[in-house]
Amino acid sequence: MSHPLTPASVAPPVRTAPDRPVLVHSPGARVVRAPLPRASATPVARPAADLEIAIPAYNEAARLPLTLRHTVEYLREQPWRSRVVVVDNGSSDGTAEVVRAHARASDDHVPVDLVGCARPGKGAAVRRALLSSRSRFVGFFDADLATPVETLATAMRHLEAGAAAVIGSRHAPGARFVQAQPAGRRLGGAAFRLMARSLVRGVHDTQCGFKFFERHAVTQALVTCRTTGFAFDVELLRQLQRAGLDIVEVPVAWSHADESSFSPLRDGLASFGAVLRMQRSATGRAS
Ligand SMILES: Nc1nc2c(ncn2[C@@H]2O[C@H](COP(=O)(O)OP(=O)(O)OP(=O)(O)O)[C@@H](O)[C@H]2O)c(=O)[nH]1
Ligand SMILES: [Mg+2]
User: Could you tell me the distance, in angstroms and rounded to a whole number, from the CA of residue 270 to the centre of ligand 2?
Assistant: First the structure.
């Protein structure tokens, strides 16, 4: 296993395994990363990095510029090599143009790519991005950066130590709400957590939009996932647990953003329906 977080003074000089990123360590304290190759114009299969972050985006032209800038600035300072890929489902507000502009302006140290997804839904978008990645660790967070990007350092520490899945949690001990959710969302969230508990054991929060994985481990789980909407996270975590993999929950400092693509009526009902279907199929399988 490579250790991009190893201090430069004790790290090996250069490694070049075919599917592994190249790490170049300077003699000083600072880690110098070799540039990543750029993806082609239609980046379905992107070159490997240590970490690839997918941002599902639907009509996010307003929120993405700040999110991408902040994310890339943060990643640039980290000792691991990262790529960012935004997955758009045919947004009508110019999201794709915003991402293309960032992709053109991004340099090879933290490339930004745009991927399209024909199937609508956050789950479909995330699944497409993760399944088309070649990076060692993959995952996603939301365009509103409700979970601070700095949480990635904790996630990478766990992944480097061998965890298969590291997920943000707003309800694990130590988590806090910097910006609270409206009462209706809190109530709906509590009911959803209650329902999801029978499908995903011991996880306090299946829905936090911050999840990272060892790619091979999550690929096995992803290929069996069918949910395309917001309940996708429940199915994914369930499949990981069914494969016998442990999930590390990291408490987060979470900020609710007023603008939301989540419609409590449309997406809330669809998510409850999807969980009910998963429960029925789990019961059918058990009987
Ligand atoms: N590609 C794609 N992304 C989506 C779709 N629906 C939602 N998203 C993205 O999924 C992420 C989560 O959506 P949010 O609007 O933050 O909703 P949420 O986090 O569930 O709810 P809030 O607590 O209100 O933020 C955002 O980055 C959205 O742009 C979709 O159909 N396709
Ligand atoms: Mg959100």
Answer: 17
Please give the Cα distance from 231 to 242 (Å, whole number): 17
| 247-266 confidence digits (pLDDT tens) | 999 999 999 988 888 888 89
**pTM value surpassing 0.85:** yes
Residue nearest to atom 21 of ligand 1 (CA): 262
Check if the beta carbon of residue 250 is closer than 8 Å to that of residue 139.
no
Q: Which residues pair with 23 in a beta bridge?
A: 33
Domain ranges of the chain: 22-35+48-282
For ligand 1, the distance from its centroid to the CA atom of residue 58, given in whole angstroms, is: 7
Tokens, residue 255 = 């900020």
pLDDT digits (tens, 9 = 90+) for 92-105: 999 999 999 999 99
Q: How far is the CA of 280 from the centre of ligand 2 (A)?
A: 28
Q: How far is CA 65 from CA 48, 60, 86, 264, in A?
A: 24, 9, 12, 26
Q: Which residues, 6+ apart, have CB-to-CB distance to 14 below 8 Å?
A: 22, 23, 24, 25
CATH class of 22-35+48-282: alpha beta
Report which bound ligand comes closest to the CA of 96: 1
